[in-house]
């Protein structure tokens, strides 16, 4: 009697719908940083104007005492990142007709996560931190101290460009602060009808707060959270990310890829502060 050698996957009745695993599919931090910069060849140059002094008075001869503003530049080389996939007809047959669409969506998600990863790597270079150990996130005093550390450096407090990025666990501990969770202390309500859910920030104490699962140390006893001004951190794309798909008839394969050429750079170090959080601590 012949032996049935049919692959087990061919004997499965597949669902008509592909269930994609959970992952971050969009960039969260791009909205929080500066995208201004000049691209020359492979290098991005961010221009920085130094702080100014007091205003001048007219000279005795009636002429104005002109000066030149002090400026400097911060540069970073662009890096090219790809996420390519190739799918043959056998993969499509034994899985699902929507597989090509799924692979394209996954390639786009990888590229968007890479943009966030570049920004986070730059934030990690900051040497200014509230404390070398984990801070007390359920305490209002923690965030008073953090914002004050920026305000004393002349970081604007009322232009809407201060951002805080924390782990979900840290955010949930912040929710125990009455001033953070109560509508009585929040001027801008986040749950506005019709507002997009992705990347939506909670505005509190002059800061736009975001949750992020890609922060360094996420899930550990020393997760790195940040408070920063948009002008302090730059991220520049050499054009928007590119997404392409097609078919190689010679090899009967479908392909797709996503590409970005970008870089991130801390432009003004005094505008970034690190706050550690213990993601492993149990909730009270």
Number of strands: 12
Separation of the first and last Cα atoms = 66 Å
Shape: flat
Gyration radius, rounded? 25 Å
Look at the helices and sheets and give the structural class: alpha+beta
Please give the order of strands in the largest beta sheet: 6-7-5-8-12
The share of residues in helices is 10-25%
SSE order, one letter for each helix or strand: EEEEHHHEHHEEEEEEE
Name the assembly state.
single chain
Task: Walk me through what this model shows.
- The chain is of the alpha+beta class and 284 residues long.
- 19% of the residues lie in helices and 28% in strands.
- The protein contains 5 helices and 12 strands.
- The strands form 3 sheets. It has a 5-stranded mixed sheet with strand order 6-7-5-8-12.
- The N and C termini lie far apart (66 Å).
- 27% of the residues are buried.
- Mean pLDDT is 80; it is low at 9-19.
Present the secondary structure layout.
Blueprint: E1 38-40, E2 43-49, E3 71-77, E4 79-88, H1 89-94, H2 99-123, H3 140-151, E5 162-166, H4 168-174, H5 178-181, E6 202-204, E7 207-211, E8 223-229, E9 233-237, E10 242-248, E11 253-266, E12 272-277
Parallel strand pairs: 5-7
Antiparallel strand pairs: 1-2, 2-3, 4-11, 5-8, 6-7, 8-12, 9-11, 10-11
């Amino acid at each position: 009697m012949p032996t049935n050698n049919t692959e087990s996957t061919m004997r499965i009745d597949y669902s008509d719908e592909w269930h994609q695993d959970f992952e971050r599919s969009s960039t969260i931090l791009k909205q929080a940083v500066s995208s201004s910069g000049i691209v020359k060849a492979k290098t991005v140059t961010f221009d920085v104007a130094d702080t100014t002094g007091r205003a001048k008075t007219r000279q005795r001869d009636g002429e104005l005492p002109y000066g030149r503003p002090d400026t400097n530049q911060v540069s970073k080389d662009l890096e090219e990142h790809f996420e390519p996939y190739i799918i043959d007809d056998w993969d499509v047959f034994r899985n699902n007709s929507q597989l090509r669409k799924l692979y394209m969506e996954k390639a786009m998600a990888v590229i968007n996560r890479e943009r966030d990863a570049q920004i986070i790597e730059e934030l990690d270079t900051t040497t200014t931190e509230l404390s070398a150990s984990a801070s007390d996130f359920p305490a209002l005093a923690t965030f008073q101290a953090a914002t004050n550390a920026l305000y004393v450096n002349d970081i604007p407090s009322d232009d809407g460009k201060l951002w805080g990025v924390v782990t979900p666990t840290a955010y949930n501990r912040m929710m125990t602060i009455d001033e953070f969770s109560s509508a009585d202390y929040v001027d801008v309500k986040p749950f506005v009808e019709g507002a997009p859910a992705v990347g939506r920030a909670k505005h509190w104490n002059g800061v736009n707060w975001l949750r992020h699962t890609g922060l360094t140390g996420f899930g550990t006893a020393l997760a790195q959270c940040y408070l920063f001004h948009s002008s302090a951190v730059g991220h520049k794309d050499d054009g928007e990310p590119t997404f392409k798909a097609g078919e190689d008839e010679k090899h009967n394969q479908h392909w797709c890829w996503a590409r970005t050429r970008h870089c991130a750079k801390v432009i003004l170090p005094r505008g970034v502060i690190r706050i550690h959080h213990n993601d492993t601590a149990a909730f009270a």
